Amino acid sequence: MMNNIIVLPLIIPIMIGVLLVFFNRQVKLQRIITLVTLLSITGISIYTLNTIQKEGILRLDFGGWEPPFGILFVADSFSMLLVLTASIVTTLCMMYAFSSIGERHEKMYFYPFVLFLLAGVNGSFLTGDMFNLFVCFEVTLLASYVLITLGGTKRQLRESIKYVVINVVASWFFLLALAYLYGSLGTLNMAHLSERVAETGQDPLLTTIGILFLVVFSVKAGLLLFFWLPGSYSAPPMAIAALFGALLTKVGIYALFRTFTIIFYHDPFITHTLLGIMAGITLIVGCMGAIAYKDMRLIASYNVVIAVGFMLVGLAIGTTVAIEGSIYYIVHDMIAKAMLFLLVGTMISLTGKTRINEISGLIKNYPLLGWMFFIVTCSLAGIPPLSGFVGKILVGQGAIESGAYILLALAFLSSIVVLYSLLRIFLNSIFGETIISLEDETPLKFGMIFPIFLLGIGTLALGLGAEVVSVYVSDAANTLTNPSIYIDAILGREE
Questions:
Q1: pLDDT tens, 96-105?
Q2: Would you say residue 484 lies in a domain?
Q3: Within a domain: residue 339?
Q4: Which of 14, 211, 292, 387 measures 20 to 30 Å from 188, CA to CA?
């Protein structure tokens, strides 16, 4: 009975999203229902995460079909950590949207599509089946496409075409990879796949299929094949951009972690080496982009690319410590990236400018905003005691233990570049001589600064409370590095 709860983070947003379609003119009602829904999902996620610690991995078999035959949803510490963080971040981004997005957008089915997006993201985290992962990817793609185009500016439409074309091609390759995988092993259940690959051995054909999955998920995650990302993430309103920066790439990253720790882990010389090369190149090019541009939206978007590279350094190394560091960093990045995008959105909203050389001295008019930006800069650079520090240290430790010194050097040089790129915004736009007189000063809305403040507390709490979180993170890393735990929980027939 208990297991039924794990599907609620997927079912509730879909049902409420469909309901809200009929209330698209009642803006206040939509806001209340959306906020209550998101808070409920957050509460359910906390409860489920603690239940997993007591009872082990939870599974739900739809239709009474036991694995590997039926539709399966699985909740372990890794997936629930991401579901919980995604729910918290979405809640705070919506609180920000109440004050910033405008009634015009709100009446264009903004809230239903945000809930559909969250359903797709949560479904991707919770599914135990590769085909259902494809379905959830498509739900996320459709919802994100609508949100990118919301408002209908020329720039949004241009970037949305690029976004959709790339993702549709990736989806086609995904289906192709699924067909080959099913043809080779006769199943798409992740635990069953892991068992079959372990029994038959990862031959060259399976390694090739693994590389095909690597390409597909890399497009989704923004790993190496990220040329669609900066434009797509900087075009929509900043509340939506914050959601994208925090959530969308994590779906691809999650899929990479699942696939290459549970299924294709027998030939790491090829798959994990390729992952390491791609992560390294992503770090280098992301750093170049973050330094090259003066548009704050593009700087924030390239910081997303750098983070993707860093997270996958941990997977490429593949040790328990490195993977633990990556999981910490994924959770941290979801909070910190949402905070960064919302801060950039607030600065653009107050000044009407997007380039760092056109804004100056905001700290005099908006001191809280200035110091919040300083906190997120330190957090993303990995300065203690903020949340980015723990993940970076653990990934670094894993790199030293396994002798991956090139990846270690690139990962830590990228931290310096992140610090430099964000300090440019801080020193140019927030410090310096003020350009806004007291008469021209636009009041900073409470509804905009409050969610940012809560995210700031979140990044500080995650850093200071690393010991509390480590219980869940260690359990998640242990499940990923020992596939037998996952297989036994799914195929062990234990109720």
A1: 999 888 888 8
A2: no
A3: yes
A4: 14
